[in-house]
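Lecture 7 notes: from sequence to structure.
We start with the chain below.
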Amino acid sequence: MIDIRQTPQYVNYLQKIGWKVERAKNINYFIKKIPLLGSVLKLQRPEKIRHKDIGVLCARYRVFQIIAEPKTESDAKYLTSIGFRLSKSPYLPTKTLQLDLTMGEEQLFTGLKKDARYALRKLQMLNDKCQIENDTEKFRDAWKNSVGMKRYVPPLSHLLALKNSFKNDCNFLLYFDDSNHRSRTFAGAIFLKTSDVAYYWQAFTNKEGRKIFAQYKIVWEGIKWAKKKGAKVFDFEGIYDKRFPQKSWLGFTHFKKSFGGVEVEYPGAFVKNQLPFNI
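Predicted C-alpha coordinates for the same chain:
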Protein backbone atom coordinates (compact mmCIF):
# COMPACT_ATOMS: atom_id res chain seq x y z
CA MET A 1 0.00 0.00 0.00
CA ILE A 2 1.36 3.40 -0.97
CA ASP A 3 1.52 5.77 1.99
CA ILE A 4 -0.67 8.88 1.84
CA ARG A 5 2.44 11.08 1.84
CA GLN A 6 3.45 9.60 -1.50
CA THR A 7 0.16 10.46 -3.22
CA PRO A 8 -0.57 13.35 -5.65
CA GLN A 9 -3.25 14.66 -3.27
CA TYR A 10 -0.76 15.07 -0.45
CA VAL A 11 1.71 16.76 -2.80
CA ASN A 12 -0.99 19.24 -3.76
CA TYR A 13 -1.74 19.90 -0.10
CA LEU A 14 1.87 20.55 0.91
CA GLN A 15 2.43 22.82 -2.06
CA LYS A 16 -0.59 24.88 -1.04
CA ILE A 17 0.82 25.42 2.47
CA GLY A 18 4.26 26.51 1.32
CA TRP A 19 6.40 23.43 0.68
CA LYS A 20 8.37 22.82 -2.49
CA VAL A 21 7.80 19.30 -3.81
CA GLU A 22 9.94 17.37 -6.27
CA ARG A 23 8.82 14.04 -7.70
CA ALA A 24 11.40 11.71 -9.18
CA LYS A 25 10.75 8.09 -10.25
CA ASN A 26 7.37 8.11 -8.43
CA ILE A 27 8.89 9.26 -5.13
CA ASN A 28 7.87 12.55 -3.44
CA TYR A 29 10.53 14.76 -1.87
CA PHE A 30 9.45 17.68 0.31
CA ILE A 31 11.73 20.72 0.57
CA LYS A 32 11.43 23.62 3.00
CA LYS A 33 13.68 26.63 2.53
CA ILE A 34 15.18 28.11 5.71
CA PRO A 35 16.45 31.68 5.34
CA LEU A 36 20.27 31.99 5.38
CA LEU A 37 20.81 28.28 6.13
CA GLY A 38 19.56 26.54 2.99
CA SER A 39 16.87 23.87 2.88
CA VAL A 40 15.55 20.84 4.74
CA LEU A 41 14.61 17.80 2.65
CA LYS A 42 11.99 15.32 3.92
CA LEU A 43 11.41 11.87 2.51
CA GLN A 44 8.39 10.12 4.06
CA ARG A 45 7.53 6.44 3.64
CA PRO A 46 8.78 6.06 0.04
CA GLU A 47 8.55 2.78 -1.81
CA LYS A 48 12.31 2.92 -2.34
CA ILE A 49 15.31 4.93 -1.12
CA ARG A 50 17.16 6.42 -4.10
CA HIS A 51 20.51 7.78 -2.95
CA LYS A 52 21.44 9.42 -6.26
CA ASP A 53 18.16 11.34 -6.51
CA ILE A 54 18.61 12.58 -2.95
CA GLY A 55 22.09 13.82 -3.87
CA VAL A 56 20.81 15.71 -6.91
CA LEU A 57 18.14 17.47 -4.85
CA CYS A 58 20.58 18.30 -2.06
CA ALA A 59 22.82 20.11 -4.55
CA ARG A 60 19.89 21.85 -6.25
CA TYR A 61 18.35 23.22 -3.05
CA ARG A 62 21.45 23.62 -0.81
CA VAL A 63 20.12 21.07 1.66
CA PHE A 64 21.73 21.13 5.11
CA GLN A 65 19.51 18.48 6.70
CA ILE A 66 17.83 15.36 5.30
CA ILE A 67 15.01 13.66 7.21
CA ALA A 68 14.06 10.23 5.93
CA GLU A 69 11.26 8.08 7.36
CA PRO A 70 11.46 4.65 5.71
CA LYS A 71 8.74 2.03 5.46
CA THR A 72 10.92 -1.03 6.05
CA GLU A 73 13.77 -2.18 8.26
CA SER A 74 15.90 -2.96 5.21
CA ASP A 75 15.59 0.67 4.06
CA ALA A 76 16.44 1.79 7.60
CA LYS A 77 19.63 -0.29 7.55
CA TYR A 78 20.55 1.16 4.18
CA LEU A 79 20.11 4.72 5.48
CA THR A 80 22.36 3.92 8.43
CA SER A 81 25.00 2.55 6.06
CA ILE A 82 25.16 5.88 4.18
CA GLY A 83 25.54 8.07 7.24
CA PHE A 84 22.04 8.64 8.60
CA ARG A 85 21.35 8.33 12.34
CA LEU A 86 18.15 7.35 14.10
CA SER A 87 16.36 10.33 15.63
CA LYS A 88 14.96 10.14 19.16
CA SER A 89 11.95 12.18 18.03
CA PRO A 90 10.16 10.78 14.96
CA TYR A 91 8.07 13.13 12.87
CA LEU A 92 5.49 10.56 11.74
CA PRO A 93 3.84 8.03 14.08
CA THR A 94 6.11 4.98 14.23
CA LYS A 95 3.33 2.58 15.14
CA THR A 96 -0.27 2.43 14.01
CA LEU A 97 -3.36 0.27 13.80
CA GLN A 98 -4.85 -0.85 10.51
CA LEU A 99 -8.38 -2.18 10.28
CA ASP A 100 -9.49 -4.52 7.49
CA LEU A 101 -12.50 -2.91 5.77
CA THR A 102 -13.15 -5.76 3.35
CA MET A 103 -15.34 -7.48 5.93
CA GLY A 104 -19.02 -6.59 6.34
CA GLU A 105 -20.25 -3.83 8.66
CA GLU A 106 -21.85 -6.32 11.03
CA GLN A 107 -18.58 -8.23 11.26
CA LEU A 108 -16.71 -4.98 11.90
CA PHE A 109 -19.11 -4.17 14.75
CA THR A 110 -18.73 -7.64 16.24
CA GLY A 111 -14.96 -7.16 16.15
CA LEU A 112 -15.14 -4.08 18.37
CA LYS A 113 -14.03 -4.38 21.98
CA LYS A 114 -16.72 -4.42 24.65
CA ASP A 115 -16.30 -0.75 25.64
CA ALA A 116 -16.73 0.43 22.03
CA ARG A 117 -19.86 -1.64 21.46
CA TYR A 118 -21.32 -0.39 24.75
CA ALA A 119 -20.61 3.25 23.86
CA LEU A 120 -22.16 2.99 20.40
CA ARG A 121 -25.31 1.29 21.69
CA LYS A 122 -25.71 3.92 24.39
CA LEU A 123 -25.30 6.74 21.88
CA GLN A 124 -28.16 5.34 19.78
CA MET A 125 -30.56 6.49 22.50
CA LEU A 126 -29.47 10.13 22.29
CA ASN A 127 -30.88 12.81 20.01
CA ASP A 128 -27.50 13.47 18.43
CA LYS A 129 -26.27 13.40 14.87
CA CYS A 130 -23.09 12.93 12.85
CA GLN A 131 -22.89 14.97 9.68
CA ILE A 132 -20.31 16.06 7.13
CA GLU A 133 -19.58 19.77 7.59
CA ASN A 134 -19.01 21.44 4.23
CA ASP A 135 -18.35 24.84 5.78
CA THR A 136 -14.67 24.61 6.70
CA GLU A 137 -14.72 27.76 8.80
CA LYS A 138 -17.62 26.43 10.90
CA PHE A 139 -15.73 23.18 11.38
CA ARG A 140 -12.63 25.02 12.56
CA ASP A 141 -14.68 27.25 14.91
CA ALA A 142 -16.25 24.14 16.48
CA TRP A 143 -12.77 22.64 16.88
CA LYS A 144 -11.34 25.77 18.47
CA ASN A 145 -14.31 26.18 20.82
CA SER A 146 -13.91 22.56 21.94
CA VAL A 147 -10.20 22.63 22.78
CA GLY A 148 -9.58 26.32 23.56
CA MET A 149 -5.91 27.23 23.91
CA LYS A 150 -4.84 23.77 25.12
CA ARG A 151 -4.26 22.25 21.70
CA TYR A 152 -3.07 23.36 18.31
CA VAL A 153 -5.77 23.96 15.73
CA PRO A 154 -4.59 24.28 12.11
CA PRO A 155 -5.21 27.64 10.46
CA LEU A 156 -8.21 27.92 8.17
CA SER A 157 -5.94 28.21 5.13
CA HIS A 158 -4.42 24.78 5.89
CA LEU A 159 -7.81 23.13 6.33
CA LEU A 160 -9.04 24.63 3.07
CA ALA A 161 -5.88 23.41 1.35
CA LEU A 162 -6.48 19.90 2.69
CA LYS A 163 -10.09 19.86 1.54
CA ASN A 164 -9.28 21.31 -1.89
CA SER A 165 -6.49 18.76 -2.39
CA PHE A 166 -8.41 15.62 -1.40
CA LYS A 167 -11.81 16.89 -2.59
CA ASN A 168 -14.45 14.12 -2.25
CA ASP A 169 -11.94 11.91 -0.46
CA CYS A 170 -11.83 14.33 2.47
CA ASN A 171 -14.47 14.14 5.20
CA PHE A 172 -14.83 16.86 7.86
CA LEU A 173 -17.27 15.17 10.23
CA LEU A 174 -19.03 16.79 13.21
CA TYR A 175 -21.02 15.12 15.97
CA PHE A 176 -23.55 17.45 17.56
CA ASP A 177 -26.78 17.76 19.51
CA ASP A 178 -29.58 17.72 16.95
CA SER A 179 -32.28 18.84 19.39
CA ASN A 180 -31.29 22.47 19.68
CA HIS A 181 -30.22 23.78 16.26
CA ARG A 182 -26.73 22.30 16.57
CA SER A 183 -25.88 24.60 19.48
CA ARG A 184 -23.61 21.97 21.02
CA THR A 185 -20.84 20.22 19.11
CA PHE A 186 -19.39 17.27 21.01
CA ALA A 187 -16.69 16.03 18.65
CA GLY A 188 -15.24 16.29 15.19
CA ALA A 189 -12.74 14.51 13.00
CA ILE A 190 -11.05 14.66 9.63
CA PHE A 191 -10.87 11.48 7.54
CA LEU A 192 -8.85 11.22 4.34
CA LYS A 193 -8.86 8.53 1.69
CA THR A 194 -6.37 7.48 -0.98
CA SER A 195 -6.98 4.69 -3.50
CA ASP A 196 -7.17 1.84 -0.96
CA VAL A 197 -6.53 3.36 2.47
CA ALA A 198 -8.56 5.73 4.65
CA TYR A 199 -6.90 7.68 7.46
CA TYR A 200 -8.16 8.91 10.82
CA TRP A 201 -6.26 12.15 10.28
CA GLN A 202 -7.13 14.59 13.09
CA ALA A 203 -9.84 14.77 15.74
CA PHE A 204 -11.18 16.64 18.75
CA THR A 205 -13.67 15.99 21.56
CA ASN A 206 -14.81 18.40 24.27
CA LYS A 207 -15.45 17.54 27.93
CA GLU A 208 -19.15 16.97 27.41
CA GLY A 209 -18.42 14.80 24.40
CA ARG A 210 -16.04 12.60 26.37
CA LYS A 211 -18.69 12.06 29.05
CA ILE A 212 -21.14 10.64 26.50
CA PHE A 213 -18.44 8.72 24.53
CA ALA A 214 -18.86 10.90 21.44
CA GLN A 215 -15.39 9.92 20.20
CA TYR A 216 -16.60 6.37 19.57
CA LYS A 217 -19.47 7.59 17.41
CA ILE A 218 -17.34 9.91 15.30
CA VAL A 219 -14.76 7.19 14.53
CA TRP A 220 -17.40 4.56 13.82
CA GLU A 221 -19.09 6.90 11.33
CA GLY A 222 -15.68 7.61 9.79
CA ILE A 223 -15.07 3.88 9.37
CA LYS A 224 -18.45 3.45 7.67
CA TRP A 225 -17.74 6.42 5.39
CA ALA A 226 -14.36 4.93 4.43
CA LYS A 227 -15.91 1.56 3.67
CA LYS A 228 -18.63 3.18 1.56
CA LYS A 229 -15.94 5.07 -0.38
CA GLY A 230 -14.26 1.78 -1.26
CA ALA A 231 -11.27 1.84 1.08
CA LYS A 232 -9.89 -1.58 1.95
CA VAL A 233 -7.92 -0.47 5.02
CA PHE A 234 -8.63 2.06 7.78
CA ASP A 235 -5.43 3.47 9.28
CA PHE A 236 -5.69 5.02 12.76
CA GLU A 237 -2.55 7.11 12.05
CA GLY A 238 -0.63 6.52 15.23
CA ILE A 239 -0.64 4.71 18.57
CA TYR A 240 1.77 4.52 21.51
CA ASP A 241 5.17 3.03 20.68
CA LYS A 242 7.42 1.99 23.60
CA ARG A 243 10.47 2.48 21.35
CA PHE A 244 9.70 6.21 21.23
CA PRO A 245 7.55 6.66 24.36
CA GLN A 246 5.10 9.53 24.62
CA LYS A 247 2.96 9.01 27.70
CA SER A 248 0.30 11.40 26.42
CA TRP A 249 -0.45 8.86 23.68
CA LEU A 250 -1.46 6.09 26.09
CA GLY A 251 -5.05 7.27 26.54
CA PHE A 252 -6.03 7.59 22.90
CA THR A 253 -4.12 4.39 22.11
CA HIS A 254 -6.43 2.45 24.44
CA PHE A 255 -9.37 4.13 22.69
CA LYS A 256 -8.14 3.30 19.18
CA LYS A 257 -7.43 -0.32 20.09
CA SER A 258 -11.07 -0.76 21.08
CA PHE A 259 -11.91 -0.80 17.37
CA GLY A 260 -9.67 -3.79 16.67
CA GLY A 261 -7.16 -3.91 13.86
CA VAL A 262 -3.59 -5.08 13.35
CA GLU A 263 -0.56 -3.25 14.74
CA VAL A 264 1.96 -2.03 12.17
CA GLU A 265 5.43 -0.71 13.05
CA TYR A 266 7.79 1.58 11.14
CA PRO A 267 11.52 2.08 11.82
CA GLY A 268 11.39 5.76 12.82
CA ALA A 269 13.03 8.92 11.47
CA PHE A 270 16.62 8.98 10.23
CA VAL A 271 18.50 12.27 9.99
CA LYS A 272 21.64 13.40 8.23
CA ASN A 273 23.08 16.87 8.82
CA GLN A 274 25.56 18.13 6.26
CA LEU A 275 27.19 21.06 4.57
CA PRO A 276 25.37 22.01 1.36
CA PHE A 277 26.19 19.89 -1.70
CA ASN A 278 27.75 17.01 0.31
CA ILE A 279 25.91 13.66 0.51
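Points to note: The chain has two domains: 4-91+267-273, 102-231. The first strand starts at residue 20 and ends at 24.
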